[in-house]
Amino acid sequence: MQLSGRNQLKGKITSVDLGAVMANIKIEVSEPNVITAVITKESAEKLGLAEGDDVTAIIKSTEVIIGK
Amino acid sequence: MQLSGRNQLKGKITSVDLGAVMANIKIEVSEPNVITAVITKESAEKLGLAEGDDVTAIIKSTEVIIGK
Amino acid sequence: MQLSGRNQLKGKITSVDLGAVMANIKIEVSEPNVITAVITKESAEKLGLAEGDDVTAIIKSTEVIIGK
Amino acid sequence: MQLSGRNQLKGKITSVDLGAVMANIKIEVSEPNVITAVITKESAEKLGLAEGDDVTAIIKSTEVIIGK
Amino acid sequence: MQLSGRNQLKGKITSVDLGAVMANIKIEVSEPNVITAVITKESAEKLGLAEGDDVTAIIKSTEVIIGK
Amino acid sequence: MQLSGRNQLKGKITSVDLGAVMANIKIEVSEPNVITAVITKESAEKLGLAEGDDVTAIIKSTEVIIGK
To answer: Fewer CB near the last or first residue (10 Å), C or N of chain E?
Structure first.
């Protein structure tokens, strides 16, 4: 399946922090960039996300703010 | 000003495509990653965004989807 | 690839309306529900979206507002 | 009040899971589709959301990603 | 209908700028704050949005970034 | 740094409620408007957010829904 989401950054999970409802996932995408993703705990568990996993961070282009 | 948005990727604008209301901006953030941002044409003009500008792509962590 | 986005509604495209930067896509997901998606024109073209295509509408759970 | 949000799916709440700050709400909108919504615990309590409630899941069209 | 979206700012439309797919709407919510909303042209037309209309700007709390 | 996010409401924090992963922050932006922001607990701590702080609530225009 191809996705309309233009931004797809490949990386490796460096930490998974589970709360009651949400989870904070850190993904190292390329030196020196780390992406923080907050997803449901439910999703983190269904995908079995763990440190070291190869994943893709997907971000729709309308969600990006530019600072200059 | 510091921002709560966890993801702040520094890069350089490689193209600016203006529509009537929206604008599509390409930002090279690190080999081989390019971020596409869609912002208002109004913002693109107020910030004077142009090819070659050094900018930061800011993405709130709740906006990231993970694919595995 | 599995996605963390919890909401994945399968449907068929019923119309594609291209603007200069954005595109408005209608997806019939199940009687009587039609999903409207606004994506970049660039994505609509790269995926070759056309009437009759079988697609999936993906929505992160943090993007849903509840009305009661 | 009419809303600009194009996607308004009527359904029934099948579960409410409260965390400290957020709440995960499942809404059956039409066979076989279930919508997961993550809202603040505060909102879930102010609206008194409970299993069996008739609700509407509202999603802005810019929040939809298309997979093909 | 009550909405889970915590932020509901009442105001008056001061301008409507229609593009091919999207529309840029300015809403004066309280001195000196003006809210800019980008919605589909389709929604702007279905709601018949025009200068002087009393409207509410609704923003989900997960969409707010804090700067300090 | 200037931001493309059109909506920047200045205000004062009136409460900070920390969960395991997320935090609920209330910001009084102008009588009678209070903005609720949900950000990561991590961000709330890194910015040292506390009652009484002068902050800015930043909202991208594509995130606003209009009710009429």
So the answer is: N
**Which residues, 6 or more positions from C31, have their beta carbon under 8 angstroms from its beta carbon?**
D30
Q: Nearest residue of E to residue B63 by CA position? A: E63
Fold held by D7-59: OB fold (Dihydrolipoamide Acetyltransferase, E2P) (2.40.50)
How far apart are alpha carbons A14 and A52 in whole angstroms? 6
Name the CATH code of domain F7-56 (choices 2.40.50.100, 3.40.50.720, 3.30.1330.90, 3.40.190.10).
2.40.50.100
Question: Which of these, F16, E46, E20, lies nearest to B22 by C-alpha position?
Answer: E20
- Integer angstrom CA distances of residue E5 from D36, D40, D51, F1: 15, 9, 20, 29
Q: What does CATH list as the number for E7-52?
A: 2.40.50.100
Chain F CB contacts of A63 below 8 Å: 60
Q: Which residues of chain E have a CB within 8 Å of the CB of C24?
A: 21, 40, 42
Q: State both tokens at B47.
A: 């910030």
Q: Is F49 helix (H, G, I), strand (E, B) or coil?
A: coil
The architecture (CATH level 2) of C7-58 comes to: Beta Barrel (2.40)
In chain C, DSSP assigns E strands to 7-18, 22-30, 33-40, 54-59, 65-67
Residue F19: φ, ψ to 5°: -100, -160
pTM to 2 decimal places: 0.97
D62: nearest Cα among E56, C39, E67, B45:
C39
| Amino acid making up residue F43 | S
Identify the pLDDT of residue D30.
82
Write down the ipTM of this complex: 0.97
Distance in Å from the first CA to the final CA of chain B? 35
Q: What is the mean pLDDT of residues A20-43?
A: 94
